[in-house]
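Researcher: Checking consistency across runs. Here is Right-handed parallel beta-helix repeat-containing protein again:
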Amino acid sequence: MRITHFISTSLTIVTVFFLGCCSKGNVSHQKEKALITYYIDANTGNDSNTGTSPDQAFTSLDKINSLTLTAGTQVLFKSGTTYNGQLKPKGLGEAGNPIIISKYGGETKPIINAEGQHTAAVYIYNMAYVEVRDLEITNTGEERENGRRGVIVEAENCGVTKHIILDNLFIHDVNGSLVKSKGGGSAILWRNHGDKYITTFDSLIIQNCHLKDCTRNGINARGYTRRDNWHPSTNVIVRNNLLEGIPGDGIVPIGTDGALIEYNTMRACPDILSHAEAAAGIWPWSADNTLIQFNEVAGHTAKWDGQGFDSDWNCIGTTIQYNYSHDNYGGFLLICNKGNTLNTPSNVGTKNTIVRYNVSVNDGIRPYPTERRGWFSPCMHISGPVENNYIHHNLFVFPEKESADIDRTFIQMDNWGGPWANKTLVANNKLDFSEPYKMFYGESQQTFGIDNEFDSKMMDFADSNEMPVWAKDYMSDYDENWKEKMIEAFFMDDEEMKQRLEGMKQ
């Protein structure tokens, strides 16, 4: 059941003060210059040509990399051609006149193939107002390599970097390392850093891309994560992307405030990570106010974690809503934080996580024991000192599991290096189970089950109708149309799921 929404993006561009890597030229004078289009044709071009018309096309990446591109410049690769090496353009666009890198002459995407010889096939470094569209990108070496990527977007010591768009890219066969601690690998990495100038992204957008058979991860990030040096990127959007054949973490915003992750599909994750590697589908890390909505995660097979969704370390205000999670080995949801670093500069805690209006079907089906914890795959794992968790108005559908050994736990709470969870509300959910399940609250504090709909023969759940004082104001905010939204997004052709949703009480 795939998402069929196609989102058009409308952007309001604002003026940028770009430190460190910004030319000081007169902007109004630049706008009066004639805009340049460069054409590149690997088959018939020549780098001694002017490059400014199809019959005078350049032929190589090296030629484009040698130019300093100006606002409004277009760099167009001939459809159906292939370029071996790394595309590393340089230059700055401006508001209303971005640099555009794309294709011409047909529908087939031109290919940038780094052949495993470069860390990334496309490397966008200290550029602003640049859009990269309609390319096929690959980077396969003879052996897996730490840190190998398809695309890297990096900003270093250059202030606020605005308007970076990656759109309609096909990134595939990037064989980075499978080991996170050694640098891993991914289809797309963005990173911002700097000790001379604080450097962040504003309006970084990754949309309409197809990421296939990339290791270890899909889209991940690096940024400022310590709370004593907190400078989050803003207006980050990851939208309408398809991730297939990715064994590790799917989409992980890091060092952001207000990131929007929506209408993405992650599926068919190969079971090739070791038992030492933890991974999940879509989750923030050291990021505030992340909104994760209308995404589908299916078939995650990581041997540790392996959930569809997660609210993780040092995150405040994560909302996970209107998502469809199914057939994930490790379950639907993880909320976690490590207690022995709590209230240090690296970790203010994981607080105010909202999980609502989601559908979880057949999650928590890991078919073998893990080396860490045996047969462990609860539907929801809440671990460590996480506070103010609101899990409400979700539908859980669990058919009979294939083996008697497979975990049958709905919620597992435990302790990760310190205090247990505090203030967790599980309310107004429908639990449609085909066989008995268990719960474990452990030493968590103020955990409440309120008005959940379930068969008491299937689970011993201490449920009541008395809402805790600390949750009353929050629960007054309710979307009466959430079931219709989920049907439209995921289940238009699924009569059984329609009936299950429509049959839920308000």
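Researcher: Does this match what you'd expect to see?
Model: One thing to look at in this run: The two ends are 25 Å apart (CA to CA).
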